[in-house]
């Protein structure tokens, strides 16, 4: 299956993408992983991306599209893939259609994870990370530490990242509404979109997604 997963920051795309890809035995292709891999391997596209990033500029669509195409051309993606974070705008969505059309392929589904803006802000702004080990993550409401401001695992100080502050989160949401949301209507016109609630337990959201894909059997 060839799937695109979309949704606002804080909707749980990364978690669901990894679970769905594993369940369906297809590669999870995320924009973040593409950038990290190309930069660490010193590819031509990675070098170009790094130049823009060092200058504090947005990486052009053609660079991101090139990375995605190279990844989709790899052997493990022949039977399908799950795209997470790509496409992020209409230009990238149209480019993806062109890439697939050239290979006489098409998308099977676009899953739109839906969550209200206030819930997104609550999810992200409530996160606290450990200064000693960033893999230790807590939430002031959903998974608080036993002692306020102190990591349960190593005793490190818990803090709120700049990216997780409410004003920053709302700016990220604005970018999502302006740049990424239009691709949902683009794919709706192709009859590909299923909108799913991203609320509830992780396993419940995964079950909804698999049902939308007609793969309830895989949830067992």
From TrEMBL:
<keyword id="KW-0963">Cytoplasm</keyword>
<dbReference type="GO" id="GO:0004017">
    <property type="term" value="F:AMP kinase activity"/>
</dbReference>
<comment type="pathway">
    <text>Purine metabolism; AMP biosynthesis via salvage pathway; AMP from ADP: step 1/1.</text>
</comment>
<feature type="binding site">
    <location>
        <position position="31"/>
    </location>
    <ligand>
        <name>AMP</name>
    </ligand>
</feature>
<feature type="binding site">
    <location>
        <begin position="57"/>
        <end position="59"/>
    </location>
    <ligand>
        <name>AMP</name>
    </ligand>
</feature>
<feature type="binding site">
    <location>
        <position position="36"/>
    </location>
    <ligand>
        <name>AMP</name>
    </ligand>
</feature>
<feature type="binding site">
    <location>
        <position position="127"/>
    </location>
    <ligand>
        <name>ATP</name>
    </ligand>
</feature>
<dbReference type="GO" id="GO:0005737">
    <property type="term" value="C:cytoplasm"/>
</dbReference>
<keyword id="KW-0547">Nucleotide-binding</keyword>
<comment type="similarity">
    <text>Belongs to the adenylate kinase family.</text>
</comment>
<feature type="domain" description="Adenylate kinase active site lid">
    <location>
        <begin position="127"/>
        <end position="163"/>
    </location>
</feature>
<comment type="subunit">
    <text>Monomer.</text>
</comment>
<keyword id="KW-0545">Nucleotide biosynthesis</keyword>
<feature type="binding site">
    <location>
        <begin position="137"/>
        <end position="138"/>
    </location>
    <ligand>
        <name>ATP</name>
    </ligand>
</feature>
<protein>
    <recommendedName>
        <fullName>Adenylate kinase</fullName>
        <ecNumber>2.7.4.3</ecNumber>
    </recommendedName>
</protein>
<dbReference type="InterPro" id="IPR033690">
    <property type="entry name" value="Adenylat_kinase_CS"/>
</dbReference>
<feature type="binding site">
    <location>
        <position position="200"/>
    </location>
    <ligand>
        <name>ATP</name>
    </ligand>
</feature>
<feature type="binding site">
    <location>
        <begin position="10"/>
        <end position="15"/>
    </location>
    <ligand>
        <name>ATP</name>
    </ligand>
</feature>
<feature type="binding site">
    <location>
        <position position="92"/>
    </location>
    <ligand>
        <name>AMP</name>
    </ligand>
</feature>
<comment type="function">
    <text>Catalyzes the reversible transfer of the terminal phosphate group between ATP and AMP. Plays an important role in cellular energy homeostasis and in adenine nucleotide metabolism.</text>
</comment>
<dbReference type="GO" id="GO:0044209">
    <property type="term" value="P:AMP salvage"/>
</dbReference>
<dbReference type="InterPro" id="IPR027417">
    <property type="entry name" value="P-loop_NTPase"/>
</dbReference>
<dbReference type="InterPro" id="IPR006259">
    <property type="entry name" value="Adenyl_kin_sub"/>
</dbReference>
<dbReference type="Pfam" id="PF00406">
    <property type="entry name" value="ADK"/>
</dbReference>
<dbReference type="GO" id="GO:0005524">
    <property type="term" value="F:ATP binding"/>
</dbReference>
<keyword id="KW-0418">Kinase</keyword>
<keyword id="KW-0067">ATP-binding</keyword>
<dbReference type="InterPro" id="IPR007862">
    <property type="entry name" value="Adenylate_kinase_lid-dom"/>
</dbReference>
<feature type="binding site">
    <location>
        <position position="161"/>
    </location>
    <ligand>
        <name>AMP</name>
    </ligand>
</feature>
<feature type="binding site">
    <location>
        <position position="172"/>
    </location>
    <ligand>
        <name>AMP</name>
    </ligand>
</feature>
<keyword id="KW-0808">Transferase</keyword>
<dbReference type="InterPro" id="IPR000850">
    <property type="entry name" value="Adenylat/UMP-CMP_kin"/>
</dbReference>
<dbReference type="Pfam" id="PF05191">
    <property type="entry name" value="ADK_lid"/>
</dbReference>
<feature type="binding site">
    <location>
        <begin position="85"/>
        <end position="88"/>
    </location>
    <ligand>
        <name>AMP</name>
    </ligand>
</feature>
<feature type="region of interest" description="NMP">
    <location>
        <begin position="30"/>
        <end position="59"/>
    </location>
</feature>
């Amino acid at each position: 299956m060839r799937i695109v997963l979309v949704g606002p920051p804080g909707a749980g795309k990364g978690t669901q993408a990894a679970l769905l890809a594993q369940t369906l035995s297809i590669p999870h292709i995320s924009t973040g992983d593409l950038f990290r891999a190309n930069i660490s391997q010193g590819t031509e596209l990675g070098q170009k991306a790094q130049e823009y990033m060092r200058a504090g500029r947005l990486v052009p669509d053609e660079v991101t599209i090139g990375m995605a195409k190279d990844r989709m051309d790899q052997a493990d993606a022949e039977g399908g893939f799950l795209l997470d974070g790509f496409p992020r705008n209409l230009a990238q969505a149209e480019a993806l259609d062109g890439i697939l059309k050239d290979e006489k392929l098409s998308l099977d589904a676009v899953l739109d994870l839906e969550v209200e803006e206030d819930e997104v802000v609550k999810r992200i702004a409530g996160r606290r990370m450990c200064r000693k080990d960033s893999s230790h993550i807590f939430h002031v409401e959903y998974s608080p530490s036993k002692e306020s401001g102190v990591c349960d695992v190593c005793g490190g100080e818990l803090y709120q990242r700049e990216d997780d502050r409410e004003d920053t989160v709302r700016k990220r949401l604005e970018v999502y509404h302006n740049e990424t949301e239009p691709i949902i209507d683009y794919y709706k016109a192709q009859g590909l979109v299923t909108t799913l609630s991203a609320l509830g337990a992780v396993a419940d959201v995964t079950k909804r997604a698999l049902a939308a894909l007609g793969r309830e059997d895989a949830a067992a």
